[in-house]
Specification:
Length: 786
């Protein structure tokens, strides 16, 4: 019996190649999209989950309270916090801290290479699972001149030789001994360091890290599995107040396992994070798969007329309905498993392109036993969902009616179900089109928005070695060099300011008023280099040495302080010292566009700023880079020359949005394509049902155009209903997404008009082929077949 069913399934597929190809193509696309999305979701879900003690690891957050009920939640913490938590809070076994990322020059023999890393204490090796290839984690970083390397760095410096005990000179100043080598960090990790140095060394270089009112390092703790988390968290809450009088800052512990997906806070409350995108694309995967299953139902039922006599014959010779259901479900499963095999092949072939699109190397492998098992159950589920309705419908046909050759008619409930499924398909497709439009607009808005500064044609290098010790000489050497327009320095990239403080006062500020002010340290000619627009006054210039004691503020800061022009000369108090305003700069974007422009203070510094900024002429890029490298090599002959572009750093700030844009656009196109296949199936079904009617109309004089309108208007009505349902839903969801940005595009009416027009055009193009084919059919032939 089974062999007979397989023969019949293969014969039906072979005799109806177009039906088989369309059905398999739709299911293959749906399954491929679903598999790619689920692999991406699994990669996101597995972020930071390689640590053995994960369920007991917590990161320390701060709630900072300011005037006007403003609450800022940050992960930067005071330098003494880790030791204080371990000493004062029962239940905390280990407390580790990691500094910000630093880039250093590594010199071994003739090799001079630069790598990025962090400062840490020994406790991080007890908290996190950083497998040691060489050395002992119990003693690592306990000596002042210890250094831990990742496997890749160790191999770059020492080849295959043993690294522990070898000496490395850092920044040409001091020697460190390798005390351990750890495995390279996985791609799906929040940590990106390639070396670790003792935390006490960064404290020596930055004495402010000893203060409780300064934040920088990230702090992590390991809890005793037997400890009551609520009690530990309650005790930790007041640790800063116990060590800093009048502080309003509170700390709390947050599960490290949730940091990546759910670690965002807004106004002191949990605001989600990337988990929203994960949930969104899980829904997209389900919808794309459902659209593919709906297509299968439509196309299979459209063929019911051709197979009705087969059903009648089988029933007349004793086949029961369960046997027929089993046969048709079996055929469905056969098609689904063919589609599944093709989808696995496509995933394997397209994986590099997909990883490039999502800008990540997936740590989740396709060919694992659990993925294969998951695909098997996904195929079973898809086969049952896609084949259930056709199987139950075909098995319910009346054998007498089918053998007499009577016209098959669907019940009203079945007709409405079919139309509802098509409406559902196009409603989802319409929502995806609107979303893709608006995501594209927002990304374009981000790229083209006037930031208040010009990030283009600006390159930067790390201010280090003899360059940082001789900033003015280096800057003077660049003047007049081919392609160089201007140069300056800054302690942070001006497009991404992350430092702030409360130590700014102005006339009229309340004694108890606490306001957070962003600050930026810069060198001479900063405004010229970044092409800032001045409202009044100037920024720091070598022509006015006294400006070094002056202050520059942005418009937002001036409004906050309620200053009245002229601004220049007015006195502000910074850390109890009065200093004059020498300029007010127009607001410029100094962080992600999801945040409003903050009040900003710009001050002068020399010999300490991290970055050297250089503006180059647009048509002389190669000459400018050659000039910069030649001057750099004169000052730092042992340092490798490495230059970065500020516009590329700006683009990296919006990597997530760009990935979401590419994913939404790709899956929107595929969902529309699959939905159009479903509409084609319904058009085929309708044409078959109305063959005799069309023949009679043609005999009575109906033109091809009239018949085309007759066959198409029902589909256009369904698409219009889908558009009407989808538009308010799309507007609601996209308003929520855009509201996450402090600066965003407005949703214009033309987006909905263009989407509706596109949906109608796609529907017309899909339906027109079958409609024209039916309208051109010979009426004599169609009437004779009845």
């Amino acid at each position: 019996m089974l062999r007979n069913y397989i023969k019949i399934a293969w014969r039906n597929l072979w005799n109806n190649k177009a039906f088989g190809i369309i059905n398999i193509a739709g299911l293959t696309i749906g399954l491929t999209c679903c598999m790619f999305i689920l692999l991406w979701v699994a990669n996101e879900w597995n972020f930071n989950r390689s640590h053995q003690k994960l369920e007991n690891i917590y990161q320390v957050y701060e709630h900072q309270y300011y005037s006007h009920d403003e609450i800022l939640t940050v992960t930067a913490t005071p330098g003494p916090l880790a030791d204080a938590l371990k000493a004062e809070t029962p239940g905390i076994l280990k407390a580790g801290h990691l500094s910000w990322l630093n880039e250093k020059l590594f010199s071994v023999g003739e090799k001079n290479l630069k790598f990025e890393g962090q400062y840490a204490n020994n406790d991080v090796f007890s908290i996190f699972s950083f497998p040691f290839i060489e050395g002992d984690p119990a003693t690592a970083l306990k000596r002042p001149n210890d250094i831990v390397l990742t496997e890749k760095v160790a191999r770059s410096l020492f080849g295959d030789a043993k690294a522990v005990g070898r000496i490395i000179r850092l920044d040409g100043k001091e020697d460190y001994m390798v005390c351990g080598v750890i495995k390279d960090l996985p791609a799906n990790s929040s940590f990106t360091f390639t070396w670790l140095l003792p935390f006490e060394r960064v404290v020596e270089e930055n004495q402010w890290l000893k203060n409780w009112d300064s934040n920088a390092p990230r702090t992590y703790v390991l809890l005793d599995p037997k400890a009551d988390f609520r009690q530990v968290n309650a005790r930790a809450k007041g640790v800063i107040q116990r060590n800093l009088a009048d502080s309003k800052t509170e700390v709390f512990l947050y599960p490290f396992s949730d940091i990546y997906l759910k670690g965002q806070f807004d106004k002191g409350k949990l605001a989600g994070g990337r988990i929203e995108y994960v949930r969104l694309f899980i829904i997209v995967a389900i919808f794309v798969l459902l659209i593919a299953c709906i297509n299968f139902m439509n196309l299979s039922t459209a063929r019911a007329i051709q197979r009705s006599k087969e059903v009648g014959v089988r029933k007349s010779i004793g086949a029961g309905r369960p046997a027929l259901i089993s046969q048709f479900l079996g055929e469905s499963f056969a098609l689904v498993f063919i589609a599944s095999a093709l989808s696995v092949l496509l995933v394997w072939i397209l994986m590099p392109s997909f990883e490039k699109m999502v800008n990540v190397t997936l740590s989740v492998k396709v060919f694992t036993w659990y993925n294969v098992l998951g695909l098997f159950f996904l195929a079973l589920f898809t086969g049952f969902i896609a084949g259930s309705y056709p199987a139950f419908y075909l098995s319910s046909l009346d054998p007498v009616a089918t053998l007499k050759g009577g016209m098959l008619r669907l019940r009203a409930s079945a007709i409405w179900l079919r139309k509802g499924l098509v409406v559902f398909q196009f409603a989802i497709s319409t929502i995806l089109i609107v979303a893709a439009f608006l995501i594209y607009q927002q990304i374009r808005f981000i790229k083209n928005r006037n930031l208040g500064l010009n990030k283009d044609q600006v390159v930067y290098i790390t201010n280090e070695g003899n360059v940082i010790r001789n900033e003015n000489a280096f800057m003077n050497a660049l003047k007049g060099m081919p392609g160089i327009v201007a140069s300056s320095t800054s302690d942070q990239l001006p497009i991404r300011i992350g430092s702030n403080f409360q130590g700014l006062s102005w006339p009229g500020k309340g004694a108890d008023e606490s306001v957070l002010i962003d600050y930026l340290w810069v060198g001479y000619d900063f405004a010229k280099t970044m092409q800032l627009e001045m409202v009044e006054g100037r920024t720091f210039s070598a022509e006015y040495p006294t400006d070094q004691q002056g202050l520059v503020i942005n418009e937002t800061a001036a409004r906050l302080m309620k200053l009245k022009p002229p601004y220049v000369g007015q006195l502000l108090t910074v850390d109890d010292q009065k200093q004059p305003v020498i300029g007010v700069v127009k607001d410029f974007s100094s962080s992600h566009l999801s945040k409003k422009i903050a009040p900003t203070l710009i001050r002068y510094a020399s010999g300490t700023n991290r970055f050297f900024l250089v503006r180059i002429q647009p048509d002389k890029t190669e000459a400018a880079l050659a000039s910069l490298e030649s001057v750099y090599k004169k000052f730092n002959p042992e340092y490798p020359f490495s230059v970065k572009y500020m516009d590329e750093s700006f683009a990296k700030m919006y990597t997530s949005e760009q990935v979401i844009g590419r994913l939404s656009a790709s899956f929107t196109v595929l969902a529309i394509f699959v939905a159009c296949l479903g509409l084609f199936g319904l058009a085929t079904f309708t044409a078959q049902q109305r063959t005799k009617e069309i023949g009679i109309r043609k005999v009575l004089g109906a033109t091809i155009g009239q018949i085309l309108v007759l066959l198409s208007k029902e589909f256009l009505r369904l698409v219009l209903i889908a558009v009407a349902i989808a538009m308010p839903l799309a507007a609601y969801f996209m308003h929520g997404w855009l509201d996450k940005f402090a600066y965003h595009v407005e949703i214009s009416w033309w987006v909905f008009a263009a989407t509706a027009l596109l949906a109608l055009v796609l529907a017309m193009l899909t339906v027109s082929y079958q409609s024209v084919k039916t309208a051109r059919m010979n009426p004599v032939k169609s009437l004779r077949t009845e």
